[in-house]
Design a protein that fits this description.
With about 375 residues, the protein is an alpha+beta fold. The chain contains ten helices and ten strands. The structure holds acetoacetyl-coenzyme A and flavin-adenine dinucleotide (FAD). The site of acetoacetyl-coenzyme A has 25 residues, from helix 4, helix 6 and helix 10. It catalyses: 3-sulfinopropanoyl-CoA + H2O = propanoyl-CoA + sulfite + H(+).
Length: about 375
């Protein structure tokens, strides 16, 4: 067993930490207030290899492994969770599926643009009536005689939807086949028949723009199919396995920021003639925060390591995402409590960490769905 990191892994962690501390953290409060998309910072992440960490260098990426991705995501999320949401979709949800199932042409066109930070990518699975129950999607792609598809339907809650150029879209090609009747497509948001809705007002990760998108007779060419027709649901699920490692890392980063702010505060703030960190009740909270953070980190590194070894990691990714997201919610809750009235004020960042943490229990599969995946895999029952 090896607990150290390679030089390469430490190098990308260092690059991410520097950008997070110098550019992202100082601007996070402003972006949270305005809800503006942090385009310049996102471009900077792209220029530094952070939008395609696991993408081979021949497609414009950094050519590193999943552990390096975890380390970098944690640093960016500690700077600001919203930035790490955008980074996570580009890295895990957009690039992963194309690298595994895409043609050479698709990799050169779509992966390169995203990995280099020239464009932003998105992943469109959810619909107004189908979130957890993803196979209940209705967006329809009808095959034409020339091999192209005409697409009609809506997708909701699409991260980076308002700004992304390219989308991995899942649509029904054969309504009689259930999960096996879903196909993945690569969509260009600049083409006719593609429409973007209004940006959603959100509780947290406010700088990560989210919207509904709609297809009205959008024509996808035969070459825009990702993988085989009917393989789309499996592609979505395997991409989400990887995505869940990214969200676990996001949860760890933002929880670590809340923990570190709390460690400072308990030494400075005095009550009853002593630092509040000297009270045993505060110390118990600090100890529990530390245990949950470390457990989340180790479980997430395990899932990333398995992915890097080419082994199955579905259960381990769900264990990591479930543990880290619930830990982030608990840790940020305690951070607000330990800051007292100041924890409730926008003058301190902990109220933002608390708001941002909640999303990690919802997207890329709610906590209930993670429990379902883990228990189904463990028991073989459903
Ligand atoms: N890898 C590969 N294939 C898989 C798989 C996996 N991890 N999980 C399931 N499959 C396959 C199954 O083997 C099955 O294939 P066959 O038809 O050949 O047997 C097929 O997919 C259907 O599987 P299930 O019967 O298990 O499907 P289900 O309807 O019971 O749903 C579910 C399973 C786990 C609940 C799934 O629907 C799910 O994960 N729901 C949550 C959706 C989600 O996470 N959405 C995230 C949207 S993206 C997002 O949120 C981005 C962001 O925030 C930034
Ligand atoms: P529902 O599925 O309606 O669930 C409602 C409640 O019922 C939840 O508590 C859920 O856990 C519970 N529930 C449902 N089924 C079960 C069950 N079988 N057992 C027990 N409990 C159950 N989607 C994309 O495709 N792309 C994106 O980029 C994207 N980004 C997002 C960004 C944000 C900010 C948000 C809020 C969502 C985003 N989503 C995205 C959608 C997200 O993945 C879904 O919101 C999530 O999967 C839950 O689906 P739902 O909202 O429809 O809730």
């Amino acid at each position: 067993m090896e607990f150290g990191f390679s030089e390469e892994q430490l190098m990308i962690q260092d690059v991410a930490r520097r950008i997070a501390q110098e550019k992202i953290a100082p601007s996070a409060e402003g972006f949270d207030r305005s809800g503006e998309f942090p385009l310049d910072n996102i471009r900077l992440l792209g220029e530094n290899g952070l939008m395609g960490i696991e993408v081979p260098t021949e497609y414009g990426g950094a050519g590193m492994d999943p552990v390096a991705y975890v380390l970098a995501m944690i640093e960016i999320a500690a700077g600001d969770a919203a930035h790490s949401t955008i980074m996570s979709v580009n890295n895990s949800l957009f690039c992963n599926g194309i690298l595994t199932h895409g043609t050479e042409e698709q990799k050169q066109t779509y992966v390169r643009a995203i990995a280099e930070g020239a464009e932003i990518g998105a992943f469109a699975l959810t619909e107004p009536q189908s979130g957890s129950d993803a196979t209940a999607m209705r967006c329809r792609a009808v095959k034409q005689d020339d091999g192209s598809y005409v697409i009609n339907g809506k997708k909701s809650w699409i991260t980076s939807g308002p700004v992304a150029r390219y989308f991995v879209l899942f649509a029904v090609t054969d309504p009689d086949k259930g999960a096996r009747g879903i196909t993945a497509f690569l969509v260009d948001g600049d083409r006719a028949g593609f429409h973007r809705g209004k940006t959603e007002p959100k509780l947290g990760i406010r700088a990560s723009a989210t919207c509904e998108i709609e297809f009205q007779d959008y024509v996808a060419r035969a070459g825009d199919v990702l993988g085989e027709e009917g393989q789309g649901f499996k592609i979505a699920m395997s991409v989400l396995d990887a995505g869940r490692i990214g969200i676990a890392s996001q949860a760890i980063g933002l929880a670590r920021a809340a923990y570190e702010a709390t460690l400072e505060y308990v030494k400075e703030r005095k009550a009853f003639g002593q630092p509040i960190g000297a009270f045993q009740m505060t110390q118990a909270k600090i100890a529990d925060m530390k245990c949950k953070l470390d457990a989340s980190l180790l479980l997430t590194l395990r899932a990333a390591w398995l992915k890097g070894q080419g082994k199955r990691f579905t259960t381990e990714a769900s264990v990591a995402k479930l543990t880290a997201s619930e830990a982030a919610m608990w840790i940020t809750h305690q951070a607000v409590q330990i800051h007292g009235g100041m924890g409730y004020s926008k003058e301190m960042p902990v109220e933002r960490y608390f708001r941002d943490a909640k999303i990690t229990e919802i997207y890329e599969g709610t906590s209930e769905i993670q429990r379902l995946v883990i228990a189904r895999n463990e028991t073989g029952l459903r």
